[in-house]
Write a structure and sequence with these properties.
The protein has about 70 residues and is mainly α. The protein contains three helices and no strands. The chain has one domain. The longest helix is centred in the last third of the chain and has 25 residues.
């Protein structure tokens, strides 16, 4: 679990920082996957492939913008 410090009473900023940290760590994603239960290896592989496509598209979009 990550810890966040609230500075100058800025709770909204601290909340945003906490959400970003949790998203980067993948904690919520891992919990969702565990709730789904067992996935066949082929299904896991397909999901990983789709996620890789999404990530590469995002990266490409980001690279084009800069």
């Amino acid at each position: 679990m990550s810890s966040i410090q609230v500075r100058n009473g800025n709770v909204e900023g601290a909340l945003r920082t906490m959400k970003q940290k949790n998203a980067r760590s993948g904690l919520l994603k891992e919990l969702r996957e565990r709730q789904e239960g067992y996935l066949k290896p082929g299904v896991k592989r397909r999901m990983a492939k789709e996620e890789a496509k999404r990530n590469s598209r995002r990266k490409e979009r980001y690279d084009r913008a800069s």
